[in-house]
Amino acid sequence: MSIGKLLVMVLVGTAFVCAASVARADAPLSGEMKSIDGKPVDLAGYKGKVVLVVNVASRCGYTRQYAGMQKLFDKYKDKGFVILGFPANDFGAQEPGTDAEIAEFCSTKYGVTFPMFSKITVKGPEKAALYKSLTESADPKGEVAWNFEKFLIGKDGAVIGRYKSNVSPESGELAAAIEAALAK
What we know:
The chain contains five helices and six strands; from the N terminus they run αβββαβααββα. The protein is of the alpha+beta class. It has a single domain, classed as Glutaredoxin (3-Layer(aba) Sandwich), CATH 3.40.30. The strands form two sheets. The chain has a four-stranded mixed β-sheet with strand order 4-3-5-6, with helices on one face. The chain is globular, with a radius of gyration of 18 Å.
């Protein structure tokens, strides 16, 4: 086999692998993420559910939203709803802890039982593929502005709502959107 043919095969193979590992903008529930305890989680496993994705931090003025998120999860979890928490240290270094420290904080301080994931980057050139997809497919498009921004994903896997940090997990606006999505 010639060097040219080998080079073409390597380039094609590399392009295929790279394409397979990148989340599509229209399909945020694709790809694999690491749970807070280090286990791989295939996000496609959440398709068919209504999903609220939230970037979280333990030293933020909005940290108390963990309590409301847990109440929301408890209220709708048996109806096909799940919250996915993604710790991020992108805003004011408000999530400096390790995954183990974050898990302990969430469990002891707020009794969190919804799925939590390993710390990621949610803005800028290094943001996780999930957040690249969310910020490109949500309305409005654009970077996450602060901790506890929320993305609502319908059963079909499409982003159906985006809520800024100041929208409480217990707000009527968010509850109505979740209930409407669950009814579909």
